[in-house]
Amino acid sequence: SELLGALAPPLRATLLSILGYPEGSAASIMTTEFVSVPSDWTVGRTLDYIRKVERTRETIYAIYIVDPDTQLLLRSTGLRRLITGNPEDSILSVAPDRMPVTVTPLTDRENLAQTISKYDLLALPVVDHGRILGIVTVDDIIDTMIEETTEDVHRFGGMEALDEPYMKMGFLAMIQKRAGWLCALFLSEMLTANAMQSYEGELEKAIVLTLFIPLIMSSGGNSGSQATSLVI
To answer: pTM for the full model?
Structure first.
């Protein structure tokens, strides 16, 4: 509270509004430092504005166009289109004729990562009732994408996702993460052993067949590891 009290009123209001959203939501990790311009501006005026504010913005590669009266998000365009456009043309003339991909303030981080990856975006606008509140950049979400991938790999390996590096985990924490899956695998192996008992008579008649049991089980494990690697 002391730190918030020392901030300028506009910045304090912005921080309080962001802190009011649930942890892990789009609004909780967004930045409010983005470039937005009215739809009645020209390309040249927009470029002049970007030159003035670029040091205070998270990114200038995505420009958001809003209605000058209602502040509703209309279009988005990229810096390349501005640079190659005619300075006298309207900003809308260099923007794609479609609404940009957006998310709501309560969109979770996993959906954010999936959306950014699906559409190859550098930034994703967070919109509430048509008005842009902020943006989530790919830098903000890349850590989440790494965490999701790590969790998926852990699940493929038959264990819960680790909350910290493997070499730093305690013995009891490691048991907690791995014991459940190991017990489940052990029980499944017991079922395999029970199934083999029904062929005990055949194995006694041809002892040489028992030599192939470890080979078959090892091949099954190897094929499972290969299938997991292909899926990943």
So the answer is: 0.65
